[in-house]
Sequence to fold (328 residues):
Amino acid sequence: MGSPLYSIPGTAPATTPVAEPTADAAAAQASPSTEARTVSEVLAQSQAGAVMDELDRDLVGLTPIKARIRDIAALLVIDKLRMNLGLQAQAPSLHMSFTGNPGTGKTTVALRMAEILFRLGYVRKGHLVAVTRDDLVGQYIGHTAPKTREVLKRAMGGVLFIDEAYYLYRPENERDYGQEAIEILLQVMENQRDDLVVILAGYKDRMDTFFRSNPGMSSRIAHHLDFPDYAPGELLRIADKLLEQHNYRFAPGARATFEEYLTARIRQPNFANARSVRNALDRARLRQASRLFADQDRRFTAEELTAIAACDIRASRVFQAAATQGPS
Ligand SMILES: Nc1ncnc2c1ncn2[C@@H]1O[C@H](COP(=O)(O)OP(=O)(O)O)[C@@H](O)[C@H]1O
Ligand SMILES: [Mg+2]
Fold:
């Protein structure tokens, strides 16, 4: 991974210190060979195109999300072209909210987003720091500010991903320290937005309530991405991908059994989209291993070692108790 190819100048007021561009970024800006004039030149130099193609390829479904990410990337690319022609570019605000049910791909997409922002030079490092309320808010008076600042420091140059962000706000408790964390976040989101992107994630309805009670936060979020639940066919394709990633595959008939499994599992409590698929496949791999383990003197073929059989899936409690019980 290289260094960012350019950095968008900050829009912070003159009194606020703006981070010095890194030596590499400065060098890149000085070199005439990096003065891209076309979209394809920017994409080629930054390799952002490759990351976007990868996102399209690796992630099943998510069509509206992928389209929004392309829009955001387009904005940054055009910004880069404007800057190369000396047009004063304002760092666009890129703080986002990712809403959706568990396992719909929010964390996964946030990681890709961080990579794209890095490639296009919006952030210096492109790492993702994922936190929840407990990482930001202290238990005692005076503990919250240092905790929040420490997290912000770690996230600077990348993406700060706050999962279930609405837990920062607890109106029922008048003296909740979450408010203190929110205020610090708001300041940094405004003043250092050229080097930190904050993504707030969680359930849509709770996030909407949170934004209604926190207009300051709401006004700083430029992009709201809502992650839909996956359709059964998409979950099945996600299963294929996950197996492929680990060098496994469904044996003949096993995919149909997994489809049946999904139909039952979706109706049961705590169904969590792609995460439930991942967990189910992890358990199927365990069952496959126990099944093979029992055959102690056999020389297994690669074929046998990679195949998840229908019986590895059929053994799930989801089948036995589809009507009455929770997930296996
Ligand atoms: N569209 C997708 N295509 C392939 N795998 C996916 C997709 N969405 C999620 N996954 C997988 O499902 C799991 C859960 O996704 P995650 O991003 O953690 O969901 P969330 O953060 O919304 O709870 C991850 O292991 C991820 O790799
Ligand atoms: Mg997540």
The radius of gyration is 23 Å.
